[in-house]
Structure formats: C-alpha cells, structure tokens
Description:
Elements: H1 3-12, H2 18-25, H3 31-46, E1 54-62, E2 71-72, E3 80-89, E4 95-100
Antiparallel strand pairs: 1-3, 2-3, 3-4
Amino acid sequence: MSRIRFGELLSLIGFDDKQTRTERRKQDKFCPIREVFYKTDELFVKYYIPGAHLTIDEMLSLFRGRCPFKVFMKDKPGKYGILIRMLSDVHTRYILKMEVYAGKDERPAE
C-alpha cells in the first residue's frame, strides 16, 4: 500500500467523538483510543483457551512523540515510551489481556 493511499484511508477512519473528547480527557487520558483497544482486547480472550500457566509482564513500547501518558524508565535501554502490562500464556506466549498505563487513576475505587 502506498503512503498516499494509507494517508487517505487514515483520514477517513475515526474512532472517537471529537465533540466530547475534551470533557472525557479530563478524567481519562487514554479516552481517544480506549474503546478500540478494549474491543481488540476482548477478542484475545474470545478465541483462545489459556493453559494452566500464565504470567504477567510489562513492556515499554518505545515512543518519543507527544503523548499524555508517555513514561520515562531510566533502567530500560529505550527510556521513553508507552508502558503496557499484559497477561500471557507461558508456553505459547499468547497475550490474553493488555492494559496501557495511562497515568495515575483519578477515578474513585469501586
């Protein structure tokens, strides 16, 4: 796919309501893509039956652009990025659940 075609398709795809984004972003920095992320996350579990051994791991996805939930981790080789925690099967390495760290949770505990 050419870069121009990709740009055209990207301009036509929308995942978020821009009118309400500002208000929602006050409570949730991850709001523009949260719905799409959660839909994808639901499909991981739907089509796979995990084994008996699972592990929780975290990954720093390298990113240096503008992002309200970008983190700095001095111990990692690439120090800036988006922190993703995941639950995966030990033997197949299949990811069952992912969660993006979007900063301190401002919502009260339920």
